Model the fold of this input.
Amino acid sequence: MSVGIITGTGLYELPLDDPSIVERATPWGPVSLRRGVLAEAEVVHVSRHGAGHARLSSQTEPRATIAALADEGVTAIISTTVVGGVDPGLELGSFVLFDDLYFPSNRLPGGELCTLFSAAGQAGRGHWIFTAAYPRPIRARVLEAAAGIGRSARDGGIYGLSLIH
Done:
């Protein structure tokens, strides 16, 4: 099983053993992936913004990233993001494993629907029922890893996203 890791601001390259670069063409554009081993797990890494934060959030194409990871045989994805928090009790630099998502518009910055299944009647098209941000086994491993390196981690939180058109 390969795990996909999508990183955001401030984390552009992971310390992979035996890394290789894979370029994938998708219907939404090309994606550069780094394959390798991290903590004895096969991973496929995508830096959302590219080295040195070359792309702004509005210049990224999440559908291309997900399609490229699927083409590489990834069966689980962990994604990181750097965001502000509204809970004053949350320690700066803490990991938060979101268990809910607030995404009212369900549209990308260009106005198009945020889905891989955009054609009417396409297999897989339907409503997205968001029940858990991370499956329990992955949640447990991430929380265990955070504790193992002495980092504060919260099990639960809401990720809010509002795109302005």
